[in-house]
Amino acid sequence: MISAADALRLVLESAPAPMPAEPVGLLDAVGRTLAVGLVATANVPPADNSALDGFAVRAADLTAPLTISGTVRAGDEPGRLTVAPGAAVRISTGAPLPDGADAVVPVEQTQTNGLFLTILKPFAAGHGVRRCGTDLAIGQSALAAGTVLTPWTVATAAALGRMIVAVHRRPVVAVVTSGDELVPADTPDPLPPGKIRDANGPMLAALIWASGGEPRLIPTAPDRELPLAQALISARETADLIVTVGGVSMGEHDLTRRVLTGLGYNEQFWQVAQRPGKPLAFGTWDAVPVVGLPGNPASAAVCFDRYVRPLLWAMTGREPHRPAFHATLTAPLAHLPGLTHFVRVHLTTDEQGRWLAHPTGDQTSHRTRSLAAANGLLILPPTAADPTSGAAVTAELLS
Ligand code: AMP
Ligand code: MG
Asked: Which residues contact 351 (CB under 8 A, 6 or more apart)?
C-alpha cells in the first residue's frame, strides 16, 4: 500500500499537459486560468491626473495667496488649462493635471476668499498626483499566464479593454458510476426495494465543474462486466480524464479494475494508506488518466479533493496545491497508526483570529451530512498520535 503523499505525486506525474487555450468572455472566465498572460497595451492611467478634490498648484508657490484661474473636471481633455505662477486651478478626482501644476492640495487644507486661495500648510511636489502608467505601463505584464481569474482581476483586464481572454479549455471528465443498487437521483419515493439513489454522480458533476472541468455523466452501469465495459468505452470516447466510482474494493462484485485492465488500462497503484478512501485506484488508459474512486460518498468526495482536483488544476495550468495552515482542534480524534487521515471539519476563527477546526461528527464514509457540514479538511499525517482537543493540526479550506 502506498502513502497518500506518494499517491498524489504519481497522479500529478501522469497529468496531461494543460488543455489548449480558448477565447472566453471575461465574466464567464472568472474561476478559470489564463492560458496567455495579459500585457498592457496602453498606460493606465493614460495621463497624469488628480488623486483628490482640491486645487492644482505649483508646490513652490504655496507661501502666498494664489489666484483661482479656472476649473478642470474628470473627463476634460488633458492640456486644456495651464497653472501659471501664482495661480491655482480647481480640480476634481480623476481630472487631468493642468500643465504647469506639480501638486494637488486637498480642498480641506484651503480657504477661499472670492478669487483668492490660501493654502493652510506646505505640500511637496507630487502630492495628490497620480502619474501616467503608475497602475499599468505599456509593455508591463498585467496578469501572468496561470493566473486564476477572480472578480478582483476583472478590473485589471477591463481597464485594458480585454473583455475576451484566453483561458485553458475545461478538460472533459467522464464519470462512470456502477452498482446494481443504484437508481438515478431523480427517481421519486418510494424507491424500488433494495435500491438507493446515485448521490455520487451529481456530486462529482458539481465537483468537476467547480474544479474547472466539464463533467460528462455516463448512465450508471450494473455490476456486470459487459455493460461496465461498454460504459467505460463510451467514457473513453471524448474524455480527457475518466473518473469511476464504486467497484474498486475487495468484494466479489467489484469489477471496475478487472474490466479496465481488460480494456488496456495500466494500473499505477491500488489502495492507499489513508482514511477515508483506502481502495482508491489510479492508472492510465492510453494517455488518459483514470481515477477509481471508492463508492461511499464521503470517500469519493475526499479522494476527489485530494487527487482529482489537483489533477484538474494541473490540467488547467494552475498550481495544484492549496495553501495549508495550522488550526486548533476543538474535539479529540482517533487516529489509526500508519494512515493519513482526512477529517471533514468546519473551520471558524476565534476573537484572536486563530483558526478553529470542528470535526463534523461521525466520520463514517457513507454519511453525506459529514460532507455537507464541512468547509475544510484536516490532514493528519501517518505518524500522528491521537490528536487531543486543543492540538495544532494542518488544515485546508475547501474553497
Ligand atoms: P462499492 O465501492 O461499489 O463497494 O460501494 C461502496 C458503497 O458506496 C456501497 O454502499 C454503495 O452502495 C455505495 N455507492 C456506490 N456508488 C454510489 C453512488 N454512485 N451513489 C451513492 N452511493 C454509492
Ligand atoms: Mg458496488
From this structure: none
